[in-house]
Design goal:
The protein is an alpha+beta fold. It is built from 11 helices and 4 strands; from the N terminus they run ααβααβαβαβααααα.
Length: 305
Amino acid sequence: MRAQFVLSEIGVGLRRNLTMTFAVVVSVALSLALFGGSLLMSDQVNTMKGYWYDKVNVSIFLCNKSDATSDPNCAKGAVTDDQKGQIKADLEKMSVVDTVTYESQDEAYKHYKEQFGDSPLASSLTPDQMQESYRIKLKDPEKYQVIATAFDGRDGVQSVQDQKGILDNLFGLLNGMNWAARAVMALMLVVALMLIVNTVRVSAFSRRRETGIMRLVGASGFYIQAPFIMEAAVAGLIGGTLACGFLLVARYFIIDHGLALSEKLNLINFIGWDAVLTKLPLILATSLLMPALAAFFALRKYLKV
């Protein structure tokens, strides 16, 4: 009987404040969708870091004839065969080095044409203007400075470049976007909490006569509060369910179908369905507990039971 009464009161409350309930559902859905999206964005960035940092190379660019007159690092002239042999031998001795690959001027020119063949500059370049280089795969990408210290400024070396620096800028941008999404999410959560509190208070005020009678007949504080708390929890759970739906639909249409980024951007290792599905229980739990707790504390002050 008591359970039936609580459930009937929940239905009455949701219908009586239909507009505000709808606002709560929408705000909770949007805020939790952003919450889940920010978690997935963090997973995506970490996945990309693990994938790309494992592939980054350190490049040692060697001096060519044109560099001897234009670059202070190559003031002693183009790299000699002895210098190239010594650089390679020293690299192979270093414990941080995994593999060493030599790229000749002809190979560098070929790769440039493949990547930038449509550039106006490509037609004016010749193989002898390209730089020979050693591409070093490190066992630990964080050990770039060891290579830079050992070879930067050495005779025959024009520069030492780390591809990780380029990736750091990219991941810095992605992390910045993720923090921006979290800021919007926090704002939406505050809005949702304010709506929940106001909805519960309006509902309690509209039923103040019933709650007063229940107080007089000796009903417990929890028994009086339960319908209001459950109303907020049900509205929140509906919003959380919608948020889960948003994430599933977004993953399906953005990555797998529709935009099909997984097919168009083969170089990016996208997160799988398992990453999305593991976030759904957290979103549903948050959608249930957050409104219930907000309603509980709002009612303690308002009803004073």
